[in-house]
């Protein structure tokens, strides 16, 4: 039986909202989207939340609401998915790729500051694999931050949810994320002016004036599933932390390292990473035994578009990181199988 790299935990109760929506015949944006936005405000602790069709749409709206335009620079880590690159190109801005720290897998003030120019208008901080980055340090650079919390809902930075330090925060509810509604995203802010811009940009119908606006709204069908998933956030995070604790204990004597968390942070373990020089061989071995370990990032962005400067941290993590399955749908027998198979590689085949 194959153990997948990611799998959402969808239970019968998750479909209660869907049944109510079907009975109401209201499937477009409606009361369930409103409820999801209100619940998100309470959980994250911000005043304004806007549900979107996906996380990429939320990122696009974030850049537009900050007024990012052609010739502006936006700083992003090279070690991330191409969605960040895409949205910067959507608005005609310039992506400025920055190296990451090889222990935390995140941007740091030191990796960013030598890439700052007068054209730098925003920094996107990704909280890689649910491990919060150094928000206070990056804020001191004086550039607006967009917190990309696609991995990090349920993670804490100095006791508060990620998403509360930046000018804007975005979240994803894609099938492989912490909360799964198939698709879906969220953009959150405490800034009233930005909130008005987002509301205007994502409301194209029946307007008295014309300008380019977007139809990035979430449907009630998606919101219904997301609402019930959101109720289980604490349970999901607790489960991931429990599995990560088992992995760390079991792998303590193996020649692997783990992603480092910053002091006063609590990661949600969206991904569990073994960091080892034998990454490619382990991935091949585990997959051969039906356990879908993988590289957690397919390819760093500087491998796609090229960039000046050194990316030693990024390339080290890309070459040495192994993403081990970790999610609430895993059964105890599957967790034990993952542990034993990993140990088997190092005990019998690593030489």
3D structure, described in words:
The protein is an alpha/beta fold. The chain folds into two domains: 220 residues, Aspartate Aminotransferase, domain 2; 117 residues, Aspartate Aminotransferase, domain 1 (Alpha-Beta Complex). It has 13 helices and 13 strands. The mean pLDDT is 95.
What's the structural blueprint in terms of helices and strands?
Blueprint: H1 16-24, H2 31-44, E1 48-52, H3 55-65, E2 73-77, H4 82-90, E3 94-98, H5 109-113, E4 120-125, H6 135-139, E5 145-148, E6 156-157, E7 160-161, E8 168-172, E9 185-189, H7 192-201, H8 220-231, H9 233-250, E10 257-258, E11 265-266, E12 272-275, H10 279-288, H11 302-305, H12 312-320, E13 321-324, H13 332-349
Parallel strand pairs: 2-3, 2-4, 4-5, 5-8
Antiparallel strand pairs: 1-9, 6-7, 6-11, 8-9, 10-12, 12-13
Helix pairs in contact: 1-8, 2-8, 3-4, 3-7
Features:
15% strand, seven-stranded mixed β-sheet, single chain, 351 residues, alpha/beta, 13 helices, three-stranded antiparallel β-sheet
Query: What name does CATH use for the topology of the largest domain?
Result: Aspartate Aminotransferase, domain 2
Specify the number of helices: 13
- Give the count of structural domains: 2
Question: Which homologous superfamily in CATH is the superfamily of the largest domain?
Answer: Type I PLP-dependent aspartate aminotransferase-like (Major domain)
* SSE order, one letter for each helix or strand: HHEHEHEHEHEEEEEHHHEEEHHHEH
Number of strands: 13
Rg, please?
20 Å
Unreliable parts: none
Name the helicity range: 25-40%
CATH architecture verdict of the largest domain: 3-Layer(aba) Sandwich
Provide the β-strand percentage band: 5-15%
CATH class assignment of the largest domain: Alpha Beta
- Span between termini: 27 Å
Spatial ordering of strands, largest sheet: 1-9-8-5-4-2-3
Average pLDDT value? Answer: 95
| Helix/strand structural class | alpha/beta
Characterize the biggest β-sheet.
7 strands, mixed
Shape verdict: globular
């Amino acid at each position: 039986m194959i153990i997948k790299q990611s799998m959402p935990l969808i239970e019968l109760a998750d479909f209660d909202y869907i049944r109510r929506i079907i009975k109401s015949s209201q499937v477009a944006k409606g009361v369930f989207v409103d409820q999801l936005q209100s619940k998100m405000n309470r959980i994250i602790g911000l005043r304004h939340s806007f549900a979107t069709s996906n996380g990429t749409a939320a990122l696009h709206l974030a850049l537009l609401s900050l007024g990012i335009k052609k010739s502006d620079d936006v700083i992003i880590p090279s070690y991330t998915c191409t969605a960040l690159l895409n949205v910067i190109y959507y608005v005609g801005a310039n992506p400025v790729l920055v190296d990451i720290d090889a222990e935390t897998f995140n941007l740091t003030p030191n990796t960013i500051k030598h890439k700052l120019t007068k054209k730098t208008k925003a920094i996107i901080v990704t909280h890689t694999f649910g491990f919060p980055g150094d928000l206070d340090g990056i804020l001191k650079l004086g550039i607006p931050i967009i917190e990309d919390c696609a991995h990090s809902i349920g993670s804490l930075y100095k006791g508060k949810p990620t998403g509360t330090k930046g000018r804007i925060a975005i979240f994803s509810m894609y099938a492989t994320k912490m909360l799964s509604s198939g698709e879906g995203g969220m953009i959150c802010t405490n800034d009233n002016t930005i909130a008005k811009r987002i509301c205007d940009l994502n409301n194209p119908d029946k307007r008295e004036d014309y300008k380019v606006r977007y139809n990035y709204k979430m449907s009630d069908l998606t919101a219904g599933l997301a609402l019930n998933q959101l109720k289980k956030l604490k349970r999901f995070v607790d489960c991931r932390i429990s599995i990560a604790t088992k992995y760390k204990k079991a792998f303590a004597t193996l020649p692997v390292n783990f992603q480092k968390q910053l002091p006063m942070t609590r990661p949600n373990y969206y991904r569990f990473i073994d960091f080892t020089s034998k990454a490619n061989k382990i991935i091949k071995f585990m997959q051969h035994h039906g356990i879908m370990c993988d590289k957690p990032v397919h390819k760093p962005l500087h491998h796609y578009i090229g960039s000046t400067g050194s990316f030693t941290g990024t390339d080290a993590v890309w070459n040495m990181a192994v993403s081990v399955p970790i999610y609430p749908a895993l059964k105890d027998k599957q967790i034990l199988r993952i542990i034993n198979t990993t140990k088997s590689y190092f005990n019998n085949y690593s030489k």
